[in-house]
Every structure is written in C-alpha cells, then in structure tokens.
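Budget justification aside, the reviewers requested a transparent look at the raw inputs and outputs of the sequence design task funded under Objective 1. We therefore reproduce one unedited record. The lines immediately below are the structure tokens for a 160-residue chain.
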C-alpha cells in the first residue's frame, strides 16, 4: 500500500475503475436530491453600529474609547510635552500666586467686612469692583491692550 501512495499508482488504479459513466450515475442522484430540497432564506438587513449613523446609542462610549486608544496624534502646540522642570515649576508657582490673589479679592468683596468698591492692580491687569444692592460688578482691564472684561455677580445675601 505504501508503495502505491508514493508512486501515485493507487490513484491511477482508482481512476481506471471509475469510468465516466459511473461518475454520472453517482453524481446525478446527489444533484437531484440537492435541487429538490427547499431553499431557506431571509432578507438581509443592515443595522449600523455607530450611533452617529442610527446605531445603538449605548455603543457610543465604547466606540469613543476604542478611537482614543488608537489615536496616535499628539498636538504639536502642546506645551506640556516639551516643558522643562523649571517651566513646570514656574507655571505652578504662578497658578498658586493667582489663586491666593483671587482669594484675597473674593474676601475683599464678599468677606466679613466687604468693601463697597475698590481697585486692584497686578501683572498688567487692573480689577475694579463695585457693589450695588443686588449685584457686584467686576471690570477687568488689560493694561497692555486696553481690553475690558465685565463680570456681573448677583448677590443673594444682605450686606450689613
């Protein structure tokens, strides 16, 4: 048997035994049975996955997470990517000083002894505040450009 397989004589012997007529006699009933079987099919419907196109809204956070995980783009104008430790320290110090200054301004306007009006100047900006009966008006002026920003804060507490 091993000798037949190695030489291919086995397959030649099988082909000689099965003539063309024998194949037709075997294949014809199989094809006839297959053609008489009922065909089952259904309509093909497309349902989008992305909720932006009508898909399930519960997929949105999952799809956004996958998109963010695959996103290799980095903002070239990002300062944090190439900041030195000195730059980071300077930004943190500036943030702390501005936070302390804003706390002092809030205490001057809304603290235990609130002032009716005042002016505070620092770092090229001037902050003017004026307290009326129902609101506090802050006017922030950029000394370099002259740009003015006005913020109106309603007061709900009585001033004594």
């Amino acid at each position: 048997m091993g000798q037949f397989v190695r030489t291919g004589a086995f397959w030649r012997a099988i082909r000689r035994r099965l003539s063309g007529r024998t194949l037709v006699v075997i294949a014809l009933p199989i094809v006839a049975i297959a053609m008489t079987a009922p065909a089952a099919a259904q309509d093909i419907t497309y349902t989008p996955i992305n909720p932006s196109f009508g898909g399930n809204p519960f997929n949105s956070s999952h799809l956004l997470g996958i998109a963010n995980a695959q996103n290799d783009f980095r903002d070239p104008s990002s300062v944090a990517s190439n900041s030195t430790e000195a730059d980071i320290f300077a930004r943190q110090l500036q943030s702390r000083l501005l936070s302390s200054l804003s706390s002092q301004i809030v205490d001057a306007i809304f603290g235990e002894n609130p002032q009716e009006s005042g002016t505070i100047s620092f770092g090229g900006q001037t902050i003017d505040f004026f307290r009326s009966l129902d609101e506090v008006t802050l006017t922030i002026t950029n000394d370099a450009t002259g740009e003015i920003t006005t913020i109106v804060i309603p007061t709900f507490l009585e001033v004594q």
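The chain is about 45% helix and 20% strand. Strands lie at 117-122, 125-131, 135-142, 148-154. Computational costs for records of this kind are itemized in the attached budget.
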